[in-house]
Amino acid sequence: xNQLLSILKSIAEPLTKPETYQHFASKAIMVxxxxxxxxxVIRILNKIIQQFFKLQNRGNKGNKKxxxxxxxxxxxxxxxxxxxxxxxxxxxxxxxxxxxxxxxxGVVGLAVxxxxxTVVKDIITGFFIIFENQFDVGDYVKINSGGTxxxxxxxKSIGLRSTRINTISGELTVLPNGSMGEITNYSVTNGTSIIxxxxxxxxxxxxxxxxxxxxxxxxxxxxxxxxxxPTVIGINxxxxxxxxxxITAETIPGEGAAGGRILRKEIYNFFKVKGIKxxxxxxxxxxxxxx
Length: 291
Description:
single chain; alpha+beta; five-stranded antiparallel β-sheet; three-stranded antiparallel β-sheet; 7 helices
């Protein structure tokens, strides 16, 4: 019983001394100061990184998306380094051996590494995605895994472990980098709009092609997404009910489908103004007496 009282007294005795609270208060203030300084340093370094890449790519519009990707990556690495330095410094101030923790972490990490193979795979794949420039922030991509599409949309951010993709319907998909198989990037090369326009067989097809070709030249100046003038490539098919004209146009990357929708609307309105007939289904009346 006396031993228990002695232990409790030894524990409670420091709590009765003002020096104890002064010591803890000074340590707490020190920790808060270190955290505030780390936050300020990270903000300043992030601004410097942004300005650096902005100056590097001034006047070079083609590298803007690439810069966003690298800015995000470098800022993440800087944040990890700064917080690691701050945490190890705080631990040293409290008299904790950082070297011992790192040595122990190395042994534990070796054991845990076998169970964290997917994380390592994600990080390695993230490095290849970024440095091989497979896609950048802002690109429209389709990601397949095992022959199945797992995500399709605009890349919002690329990290070492995962990539965030905003789908066309608004959902945010977070994919581990290691789970990506086949990657289709629609934003690297120019797109192509290819559409079919049906025309009534009653029309003079040569005249229609000439009028349509003259009108298509004016469309490019109205819409930024067209890289070249839309052109009539000729008759794709014909039958008793209709003649189908093929129209094609080169667009900026990822806008082939949007260009097709614009062309259909513009050509429809042009046909209405010019009185060009579109095909109508023929109704044939069945007369059993003629059999």
